[in-house]
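Name: Glutamate synthase (NADPH) small subunit
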Amino acid sequence: MAKQPMLKFVQIERDMPVKRDANVRNSDFDEIYAEFARAKAEEQSSRCSQCGVPYCQSHCPLHNNIPDWLHLTATGRLQEAYEVSQATNTFPEICGRICPQDRLCEGNCVIEQSGHGTVTIGSVEKYITDTAWENGWVLPANPAQERAESVGIIGAGPGGLAAADMLRRAGVQVTVYDRYDRAGGLLTYGIPGFKLEKDVVERRNKQLEAGGVTFKLNCNVGEDITFEEIRADHDAVIIATGVYKSRDLKGPGSGANGIVKAIDYLTASNRAANFGDSVPEFESGELNAKGKKVVVIGGGDTAMDCVRTAVRQGAESVKCLYRRDRTNMPGSQREVANAEEEGVQFEWLTAPQGFAGDDVTGVMVQRMRLGHPDATGRQAPEVIEGSDYVEDADLVIKALGFEPEDLPTLWGAPELSVTRWGTVKAEFETGATDLEGVYAVGDIVRGASLVVWAIRDGRDCATAILKRFDAKQTSAIAAE
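Structure predicted for Glutamate synthase (NADPH) small subunit:
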């Protein structure tokens, strides 16, 4: 009888790739986890129980066929494992690095529910795709036949790029327009290098370009080109701009120098640390935490990126204020643990009320307690009267989330329908808007969300556009 390669979760304990020591990693922007060796990847994959109802797969927004590629990895069939992974996910090496697996696939692993510790799905996903790159298995689009139709995509983030890849592989002519000088969106300028090294993003961008995707960068829609011009140039248009408008925090002193937005801070850091760009605001110290007492306001993944970046920039101290407790914070618990290891202090149940100093010297804080659950089921924070204090700070970073920009006004397109939240109205699954041939995907539809959801939206939208093109082609042939 052949040896059973799987279901070894009882004999083999869960193991993660080696994590670099906090005292070493907190001074650079390199990724913090080492790579699995082949034997370790096979061993950890073999822990999968191959359950009949794979909750890991159903709780993945892309419904990745996780049990199958774990089985293929455990049995040494890495190229096949990569092909299965790539079949549902345009960027598996990126998702393997930055997805909050503890809230998605790994958080729903059946063997974890039985007390044996989850399969390290994200680390295996990263390993098999990095191995695929090393072995030349990752190939640019090479469509069997070119199509006459063209699609313009506004936004070079994960949603737009996922759609571009699928459309180009089907032979569609694809042009991506983006306001920045490098493609990738938040993958390039928002997420720090210690979570996602930038050569990982750049090689995907180069692969798309090698496959025939045209990039028009430094191109701001509404200024350098109009929305109507893009519509006129293409058979379909996908809006994939993401959401970049930072939520603000009002209160006394909120206009003081030294209070900055998370997106500005992270973009400056990524440009300077990862690309070597000259960034005047970073060089002047305005967007640089070196030697400063830093306070970050917020409890999501962006806040975690900010606190951990500030540590690496050489801040004197780094504190994170969040109005709920640890259990109720929206950010990844894994990221919180990494931040604590690196020296970040969390002040739970604290809410800022204002700021001291024309050049900020502190944050005026009220302590909170958790009361009754709100409409989402989370306990609503309540103020503890008389608990006010001032948290010393000379750099305050607001990481309160993002909202959509007013695209109808910016683009001179009042006919583009938006919701009361300012997100673009689009059909579920297809991304179709009220405008003929115009689609929308990712955060500009959902609001600020996860990269994996943007990839899902981009792929679904590309499928819908291809069906539309095929239907038109069939109708044209029938009419002849």
